């Protein structure tokens, strides 16, 4: 009986982890899907990506080194149909610097053309979700 219980507990411990990882991977797929139109415009998307899960109203800051003279698209996605996400880009002084921003369904994006080289922050937020925690992923491309 002890052996059965230990095996059952081990399976329960591993199963949620594999489910969580698959969900973040799914969110990453949607983030790259959101980036597709910009790849067609000549933007190169990095393999670097950020992801995690947030509750409704929670925010996460992601820092990136951006260079003057380039354009950058930040694309955000989730695996949840009825979730609403947003992404906004700020400079190191806290000023909103995005040139364009959009949100459609499970996707969001922001364009920035930095006036100077430096550290910028993408602020990711879950605005609405049918779940307590929502998985998200963020990718960015440059041109």
Verbal overview:
The chain is an alpha+beta fold and 143 residues long. The protein has 1 helix and 8 strands. Strands 1-8-3-6-5 form a 5-stranded antiparallel sheet. A 3-stranded antiparallel sheet has the order 2-7-4, with no helix packed on it. The protein is globular and about 40 Å long.
What is the topology?
Layout lengths: L1 H39 L3 E11 L4 E8 L5 E6 L6 E7 L7 E7 L2 E6 L5 E11 L5 E9 L1
In short:
The chain is α+β, with helices and mostly antiparallel strands.
Distance between termini?
61 Å
Percent range for β-strand residues: over 45%
Summarize the amount of helix as a percent range: 25-40%
Mean pLDDT equals 87
Main sheet specs: 5 strands, antiparallel
Strand arrangement in the largest pleated sheet: 1-8-3-6-5
Shape: globular
List keywords for this structure.
five-stranded antiparallel sheet; alpha+beta; globular
